[in-house]
Automatic annotation (TrEMBL):
Alphabetized GO MF terms: RNA binding
Name by which UniProt lists this protein: Sm domain-containing protein
GO cellular component, one term: U6 snRNP
Record flagged with keyword Ribonucleoprotein: yes
UniProt keywords, alphabetically: mRNA processing, mRNA splicing, Nucleus, Ribonucleoprotein, RNA-binding, Spliceosome
Secretion signal span: none
InterPro entries attached to this UniProt entry: AhpD-like (IPR029032), Lsm8 (IPR034103), LSM_dom_sf (IPR010920), PTS1_Protein (IPR052999), Sm (IPR047575), Sm_dom_euk/arc (IPR001163)
Source organism (scientific name): Paraphaeosphaeria minitans
């Protein structure tokens, strides 16, 4: 009974007005009741005002639907989980400041002692859960994004096992939309253009509408202005939407293309997957590629970055990894070798001549096919004999 007489600390008028303006903005969205305060928390903590987390908590528990201890415990569980996820986005210090600020104004009977990650283990289930959420956000960009860390495997491990496995894929308290709101805002408020673009895209992929994403970003800018935080490097949601539409248009067009066509898939996919390019420039270039495309060989998309064997019109055989192909069937092979197979009657053995990175003109290609790598590696090509191949003519 004594706790009922405790006075609720006052909320600063300017902060209260800010919270009310964000809350009003969210009434136009389909995101739900709690997303406005998850966004606000992520922006304050990712920005310069983690200590205002107590003001946010007090603002929320003053509402009519938060007058019981179990209701306030649910609020603090949600805020705490958002802060835990923010550790993976902004580091540990600011979320610690925020949760301790909240703890100072909590009533004893409102404290929640649950421990969401008590049984966490870095095992195959954690990896699978993390990769599942990672692929929902990045879809076709997943492998290329992870490949950015091929020379920095500690960061790749942190991304898959800790950021996504331990933190972001946990669904005991918050759902997919909650998580992506926290992540997008936590990144955007740091004025990080590349990862903001990735997570605008991720937000759209998990079902947040374009208009709702725009509203969220407007709210983050309002919070940034309140804190004096500059957000001058952030791409617009419309730019990212152009990219997504370009990719959708590309995928939808594939079934209508003749089966002999590789260039659209190879060139346009490369453009759309290029995380280092400005998103709006990438989408525009990809659209132009789609619009100006002419037929060649669609089947080659299955061969990209795989080992192939190429027979040329003059009877030569080249083997290597197919790195690129254009509309004229010009091929780029890496780790290329020329296989020279000699007849039995010759004393000189057959040989493989290293070529390295090698370009084959499209008008010299007769046949290209996949190599079964395990079988290929088991063959001593210096011992293979055969008749010299003749030349081939296009008729």
């Amino acid at each position: 009974m004594a706790s009922a007489t405790l006075a609720t600390p006052a909320i600063r008028p300017d902060v209260s007005a800010l919270f009310q303006s964000i809350e009003r903005a969210f009434t136009t969205t389909s995101l739900g009741d709690n997303h406005w305060y998850l966004l606000t928390l992520a922006a304050l903590v990712g920005g310069t005002e983690p200590l205002l987390a107590d003001q946010l908590y007090l603002h929320i528990i003053n509402k009519p639907d938060c007058q019981q201890s179990d209701q306030r415990q649910k609020v603090v569980r949600t805020l705490r989980e958002a802060l835990v996820k923010l550790v993976s986005i902004i580091g540990v210090c600011k979320p610690l400041e925020a949760i301790l600020a909240i703890a100072k104004v909590e009533r004893p009977e409102d404290r929640d002692y649950s421990f969401s990650r008590k049984d966490w283990a870095n095992n195959s289930e954690n990896h699978a859960r993390g990769m599942d959420w990672l692929r929902k956000i990045y879809t076709h960009n997943t492998d290329k994004t992870l490949a950015l860390f091929d020379a920095h495997k500690d960061f790749r491990w942190i991304s898959t096992e800790i950021t996504y496995g331990l933190y972001l894929s946990d669904r005991q308290v918050v759902d997919d939309i909650d998580t992506e709101v926290v992540v997008l805002v936590g990144i955007m408020i740091q004025n990080l253009p590349l990862e903001t673009a990735w997570h605008i895209r991720g937000s759209r992929r998990i079902g947040i509408s374009l208009e709702d994403v725009k509203t969220m970003m407007d709210c983050v800018r309002k919070l940034g202005e309140f804190m004096g935080t500059k957000l001058d490097r952030i791409p617009s949601a419309d730019d990212i939407e152009k990219e997504l539409r370009a990719y959708t248009r590309f995928v939808d067009a594939l079934p209508a293309l003749p089966v002999e066509e590789p260039e659209l898939l190879l060139r346009t996919t490369a453009l759309l997957h290029d995380n280092d390019t400005n998103p709006s420039e990438r989408s525009i270039t990809a659209c132009r590629t789609l619009d100006t495309f002419y037929p060649t060989t669609m089947a080659l998309n299955h061969y990209l970055h795989k080992k192939v064997s190429v027979l040329t019109l003059d009877g030569r055989t080249m083997v290597g990894i197919l790195e690129s192909c254009d509309g004229s069937m010009n091929l780029v092979l890496s780790e290329a070798v020329e296989r020279i197979i000699r007849p039995r009657e010759e004393d000189v053995p057959s040989e493989e001549v290293p070529l390295g990175l090698y370009i084959i003109r499209g008008d010299s290609v007769a046949i290209i096919g996949r190599v079964e790598e395990e079988l290929d590696a088991s063959i001593d090509w210096t011992q293979v004999r055969g008749e010299v191949l003749g030349t081939t003519k296009h008729v």
